[in-house]
């Protein structure tokens, strides 16, 4: 690993000053599980690491009227075990429990994972179907960006220079909606998924009233698949409708070929796992 | 520009003993333990946080010391395999791994035992499935998994299906 300078500011204001001072030469670090590997492999170069770990308050998980607020420095294990998350966003507790291994979840953070923007990560599809928002804070002020508008391309996000992701705001999961997350891991359980699907649905008297579907590892970013949602919303629930809707995924995804499979194989698996997720969430399983 | 040769103060308590030292920012925790403190029980294998060989406890949580910078651990309490035995007496897990053949080449063993200890500290009575899920991230390239699992389950006091 190339050497670098290390800064552990005690406040967000101090972190912003360091970002302003060092510009492109600085990298923010949260848990460091991804960044340290990338530094070791020279995939990322930084003259200055600015650690957020000493800034108080960034790890908090609390409830407000607009939803569950999860601090960017909350560890994945915090989310997995939080009674608040289990009660108000059970899908997230379930999804974070399935990331990598407990050793990684003890260290990796919610915010670090999101800004890392690896398209094969587990949480983004779930955050997408929950319509989560991100609070981005800069020296000049702050803005809220829907997760849906945050992922721009492979490892690229809408985060601007000088901005820090401070929290994720998750609207509460309504009791009437069912949600599911499926990850296809033919190699090992702690691997990144070959494809993954999150779905959330509400059914009233046999009619699908709400449907949200998002895929991971199937394109340069995690993405909502509105074609599938529109094909089912307002329609009577049936196996035939689910099969037709799931088939639409094939044209919406653009998987990258890698050692987990060819692009064609992943496209086929995206259809299969979308169908299974839809069946599960619509009670057809 | 980076300040070449800069050193950062790191204070940590390792196996109950306080240490204060100056270290480069790029020093990983596993390197600090092995090269600066001479605690070579912790092994680095994959170097990317996947295999579990470098597992240590940081404030009671298992972490991968190969992808933790030493500066990140400033102020923390670390337990390595050298700190598992108490007062010259091996931990029941260590006894059980020896008695039940819970290792072959031994490279992964430190990480296996530290990870298992963290589980039993939090949950002294896990099911076999809970142990399997917890230990999933500790690879054994000799593939001695059944004996590792048996070694842990014997400490828990539950019978394990023998092979």
Give the neighbour order of strands across the main sheet of chain B: 2-1-5-3-4
In terms of DSSP E residues, the strand content of chain A is 15-25%
Cα Rg of chain B: 16 Å
Query: How many extended strands of chain A?
Result: 14
Characterize the main sheet of chain B.
5 strands, mixed
* Order of secondary-structure elements of chain B: EEHEEEHHHH
Brief characterization of the structure:
The complex is a heterodimer of chains A (285) and B (163). Helices cover 34% and strands 25% of the residues of chain A.
Secondary structure layout plus pairing:
The complex is a heterodimer of chains A (285) and B (163).
Chain A: E1 5-7, H1 12-22, E2 26-29, H2 33-40, E3 48-51, E4 61-64, E5 67-71, H3 76-81, H4 83-88, H5 90-97, H6 102-105, H7 110-116, H8 123-129, E6 133-137, E7 142-146, E8 151-153, E9 156-157, E10 164-170, E11 178-184, E12 195-204, E13 207-216, E14 223-224, H9 226-232, H10 239-247, H11 249-252, H12 263-281
Parallel strand pairs in A: 1-3, 2-3
Antiparallel strand pairs in A: 4-5, 5-10, 6-7, 6-10, 8-9, 11-12, 12-13, 13-14
Helix pairs in contact in A: 9-10, 10-12
Chain B: E1 8-14, E2 17-23, H1 29-36, E3 55-58, E4 61-64, E5 77-79, H2 92-99, H3 109-122, H4 128-135, H5 145-156
Parallel strand pairs in B: 1-5
Antiparallel strand pairs in B: 1-2, 3-4, 3-5
Helix pairs in contact in B: 2-5
């Amino acid at each position: 690993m190339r050497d670098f300078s290390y800064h552990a500011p005690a406040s967000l204001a101090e972190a912003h000053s360091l970002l302003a001072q060092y510009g492109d030469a600085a990298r923010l670090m949260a848990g460091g599980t991804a960044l340290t590997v990338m530094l070791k492999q020279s995939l990322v170069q930084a003259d200055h690491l600015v650690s957020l770990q000493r800034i108080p308050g960034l790890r908090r998980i609390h409830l407000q009227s607009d939803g569950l607020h999860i601090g960017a420095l909350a560890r994945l294990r915090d989310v997995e075990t939080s009674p608040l998350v289990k009660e108000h966003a059970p899908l997230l507790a379930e999804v974070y429990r399935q990331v990598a291994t407990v050793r990684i979840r003890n260290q990796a953070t919610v915010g670090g994972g999101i800004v890392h923007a690896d398209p094969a990560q587990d949480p983004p599809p779930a955050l997408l179907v929950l319509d989560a928002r991100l609070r981005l804070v800069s020296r000049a002020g702050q803005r809220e960006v829907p997760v849906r508008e945050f992922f721009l391309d492979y490892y690229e996000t809408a985060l601007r220079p000088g901005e820090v992701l401070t929290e994720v705001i998750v609207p509460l999961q309504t009791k009437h909606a069912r949600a599911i997350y499926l990850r296809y891991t033919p190699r090992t359980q702690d691997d990144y998924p070959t494809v993954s699907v999150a779905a959330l649905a509400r059914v009233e008297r046999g009619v699908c009233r709400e449907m949200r579907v998002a895929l991971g590892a199937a394109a340069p970013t995690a993405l909502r698949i509105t074609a599938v949602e529109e094909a089912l919303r307002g329609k009577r629930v049936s196996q035939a409708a689910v099969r037709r809707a799931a088939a639409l995924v094939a044209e919406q995804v653009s998987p990258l070929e890698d050692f987990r499979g060819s692009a064609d194989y992943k496209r086929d698996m995206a259809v299969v796992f979308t169908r299974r997720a839809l069946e599960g969430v619509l009670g057809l399983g | 520009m980076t300040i070449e040769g800069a050193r950062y103060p790191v204070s940590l308590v390792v196996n109950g003993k306080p240490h204060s030292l100056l270290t480069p920012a790029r020093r990983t925790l596993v390197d600090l333990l092995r090269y600066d403190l001479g605690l070579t029980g912790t092994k680095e294998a994959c170097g990317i946080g996947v295999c579990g060989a470098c597992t240590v406890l940081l404030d009671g949580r298992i972490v991968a010391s190969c992808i933790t910078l030493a500066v990140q651990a400033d102020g923390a309490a670390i337990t390595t395999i050298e700190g598992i035995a108490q007062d010259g007496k091996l931990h029941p897990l260590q006894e059980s791994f020896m008695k039940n053949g819970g290792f072959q080449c031994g490279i992964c063993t430190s990480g296996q035992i530290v990870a298992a200890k963290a589980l039993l500290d939090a949950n002294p009575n896990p099911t076999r499935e809970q142990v399997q899920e917890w230990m999933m991230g500790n690879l054994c390239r000799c593939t001695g998994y059944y004996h590792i699992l048996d070694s842990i389950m014997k400490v828990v006091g539950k019978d394990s299906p023998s092979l």
